[in-house]
Structures are given as C-alpha cells and as structure tokens.
Amino acid sequence: MARVPLSGRPRPITGGLLSGNERLQCSLFAPRPARSTPLDLERCAQVLGTVQEISKASPDLDGCQKLLGCVADELRAEQGVLILSNPLTRELEFVVYNQDPCVPKLYADYYCDLDPTGLPDYVRGRTPLPRRPPAYMVSDLMDVVDYSSLLSTEFYNDFFRSARIHYDIVALVSPNADTHAALCLHRARTGKPFSPDEVTVLEMIAPFVGNHLERMFAASLRSALEAGPGEGIIVCDTSGRVLYCNETARSLCASQGRLGTLGLTVEASFVGYALSRPEVLTEVCDADVSSREVTLEHGAAGRVITLEPPPAPGLGWAQPLKDRFGLSQREVEVLDRLMTGASNKEISQALFIAECTVKKHVHSIATKIGVRSRASIAHAVRKELGAVR
Question: Cα angle at 151 between 147 and 157, to 5 degrees?
C-alpha cells in the first residue's frame, strides 16, 4: 500500500494576512442562530434510506469510509472528512471522501494550530461540549465565523482555498466520554451554501454516525479489566489500528517522542496511524510487552497488548539516588511511583498534589538525572542501581 508522504511545515504563499495576535477568534461551541427546519415527508423518507445504509456499515475503517460517502452523497457535499483521535497518542486521524489525503495531513501537521474554531481540541478530548452537553452538535461555519474576517486569514488563504473548501458544515459527535469525533462536509466557493434543510438532515444523521463509532471503538473491555495494577493495556484491530488504551499505557508511551519511534505507520487509504508491530514497543518502553488475540465486542478479531513495567528496585534505592542526583524528598516520592509506571494523574492522586506540580517534579528529576523522557528516567535509575536486564 502506498504511503502518504509526511510534509514539513508549509510556507505561507499569500500576503496581507492577519498576524498571530490578530487571528480570528470564534468557536463551534458558541451560541449561534438556529438554522434547522422541519423536513417534508419525502425528504424524511430519503434520509431514512441513508440511515439504513449507515447502519449496515461494518464497525471498522472500511465501514467509516462507506458511512462518510453515504452522508456526503445525502447532503451533496463535494468533499467529506471524518476526524478522529488516536486513543494512544492523541494524534488526529482522518477518513476522507473525495479529498486528497495530503490535505488532512497538512491540517494535522500545521494548520490545525490556526483553526479558529477549536475543533482539534474537541476531537482530542481536551474541550468538552458546554454545560450539559448534547451528544451531537451541528454547526455551519458561516454561522459561527465572520467570513469577511476569515477570508483574510492564513488558515483560509493557504489551507481552505488550496483545498477547494469554502462552505463547511460540522457535526460534533460524542457517543461516549472517550470517543470524540467531527464529521465535516465541504463545498467549493463555486457551489452553494449549506441550506437550513441540510443542517436538519445532518442533525438527524449525526446520532447514527455516533452509534457506528461507538461500535468501532468498543474493544473487549473485559480484557482491559483483567489488567493487573500498573499494567498498560492497548487493544488493536487486526490492521494495528489502536481502538482502546488505558492511562498507564498512554503514560508509558506518550513520552517517547514522535510517532515514528512507536512504529506507527501512515496509510494512504486511512490518513492516520497504525501500530505496525506490537514488539516495537519493547524498543521504546521500559516495560515487558506481551500480546494475545481476542474477539472484540462487535465480533471482529483483535489483539490485546499488555505493557508491564519492571518492579521498582525496592526501598533501599532512595537514599543513594537522592545523594547521587540531589533529589528532594518530594522528587523521591514522585520517582518511586513513576518507576511503577504510574501516570501523572495517578501520582497526583496518590500524593495529593496537583497534576501540574507532578509534571514540574518529573521535569526536574529528568534534568537532574540528565535525561529527557519518563522512560529514560526509569532506565537511568535501573542502570544506576545495576538493575538493567
């Protein structure tokens, strides 16, 4: 399968754009005028047919592409993209319809930081829907953005315009607390704006998109619940696409740098990241790695990867390391739990300190020891104590 080349940071190609301090401020989550309207019976019947097709889509990436095509055809959109988040790395992933896969790659590599709507933070789970959130929210970009200002931004001129995007309608999908996604449909400037009827159609369809994603991400949680204390769990489908991971696994892998170090490959048909081989984790994580085949809840085959950090060296390690590296007592307490594979959140709860304080202690420990990542801290400590296998 052909690979999508990873591009570097694009260079601006137009002048007269807003500066960083003048960037357009807007939000998909802000109050906006209601545009949805009741549909007539004939259109409702047509939408029902599309919903039935969506319900037949298999709970995998092929099903996502079929689903996206059905929705784009129903709304007569020229392009479509389903934006997801990799559960392990929190990197953005994309399923595309009638769009060059390089377009979402450019977005992920650079332009997502210029997106004035806050969409990337929502998909990564950093921004919940406001107040008592509905599971689904549909926004037409023209309702939440001052387009006269948008047309002067780098985001529009260097990204939207080059990708032949002018009209954009977005459905925010939250089928559960761990699954956030955005379904975006586009038209070029030569096309027509999305109508109130089409907003209503997408509002009707969005819950069924959410149902599909919930089935897709519903890995065998029984396998995860069987994990022992401190174990990291990653659940993949047969192609290596990460479906689920717990906080411990994310903590063990998150500090390892860019995606390439985790053996994550970029595929042409699905512009995202797949774990190419489980054993690559042994090369970048200070943990024992094992895997086994399982049956996922939707009946498909999958694989559970277990990351088990080596045991902490014992109580006698603290004073020698404290003297050797000049660690404070609090840093020793943080290091003790870090050595067991505990996440920053777990450490903060155990020591009754803020998570941001834990991050500061971890950074200080790494600086004093002379390393740059959490896994390197554990490796350096075991090497210092003669505990490296």
Answer: 145
Helices 344-351 & 247-254, crossing angle to 10 degrees? Answer: 110
Rounded to an integer, what distance in angstroms lies between the CA atom of residue 187 and that of residue 224? 42
DSSP 208-264: HHHHHHHHHH---HHHHHTPPTT-EEEEEETT--EEEE-HHHHHHHHTT-SGGGGTE
Write the CA distances from 271 to 108, 158, 258, 266, 368, integer angstroms. 10, 20, 16, 6, 39
Residue 55 pLDDT > 70, yes or no? Answer: yes
Q: Write down the CATH number for the domain with range 315-384.
A: 1.10.10.10
Over residues 194-241, the pLDDT tens digits come to 999 999 999 999 999 988 888 877 655 555 555 666 678 888 887 788
Superfamily for the 20-216 domain: Transcription factor LuxR-like, autoinducer-binding domain (3.30.450.80)
> Taking the model in full, what pTM does it have?
0.69
Type of residue numbered 101: P
Domain 221-255+266-308 CATH (choose: 3.40.50, 3.60.60, 2.60.40, 3.30.450): 3.30.450
Contact status, residue 384 vs residue 323, Cβ threshold 8 Å: no
pLDDT digits (tens, 9 = 90+) for 39-48: 888 889 999 9
**What are phi and psi for residue 275, nearest 5 degrees?**
-75, 105
CATH topology match: 20-216 vs 315-384 = no
